[in-house]
């Protein structure tokens, strides 16, 4: 959460952020600090509607982000995002 607060302090006036933390614990029983984010520019053509977190395994995560056009037909835009990790 600390990173998100710092990041938002510098970018919240530019972007809407949809972020998800990766599930699982690291050594010592602490929550993982990594994850993923989708940034939507506030002055851009899309607005952020919502974000859904999907756990695809004990330490795997995906994100489905729903956006919508601000103008015109107001079409829906769906973005899929995944956290890649390699062993």
List the main descriptive attributes of the protein structure presented here.
single chain, 49% strand, flat, 1 helix, three-stranded antiparallel sheet, 87 residues, mainly beta, 11% helix, two-stranded antiparallel sheet
Report on this model:
- 11% of the residues lie in helices and 49% in strands.
- With 87 residues, the protein is mostly beta strands.
- The strands form 2 sheets. Strands 3-4-5 form a 3-stranded antiparallel sheet, with no helix packed on it. Strands 1-2 form a two-stranded antiparallel ribbon.
- The chain is flat, with a radius of gyration of 15 Å.
- The chain starts with a helix and ends in a 5-residue tail after the last strand.
Summarize the structure.
The protein has one helix and five strands; from the N terminus they run H-E-E-E-E-E.
Gyration radius, in Å: 15 Å
What topology, given as strand order, has the largest sheet? 3-4-5
The multimeric state of the shown protein is: single chain
Distance between the termini: 26 Å
Helix-strand sequence: HEEEEE
DSSP summary: helix tally: 1
Outline the biggest β-sheet: 3 strands, antiparallel
Task: Note the overall shape.
Answer: flat
Quantity of strands, as a count: 5
- Which parts are unreliable, with pLDDT below 50 for 5 consecutive residues or more? none
Mean pLDDT across residues: 89
* Structural class by sheet pairing and helices: mainly beta
Beta-strand percentage range: over 45%
Helix share, percent: 10-25%
């Amino acid at each position: 959460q600390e990173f998100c607060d710092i990041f938002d302090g510098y970018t919240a006036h530019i972007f809407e952020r949809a972020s998800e933390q990766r599930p699982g614990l690291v050594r010592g029983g602490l929550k993982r600090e990594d994850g993923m984010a989708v940034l939507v520019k506030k002055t851009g053509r899309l607005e952020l509607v919502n974000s859904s977190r999907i756990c695809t395994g004990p330490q795997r995560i995906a994100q489905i982000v729903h956006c919508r056009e601000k103008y015109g037909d107001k079409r829906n835009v769906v973005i899929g995002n995944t956290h890649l990790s390699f062993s």
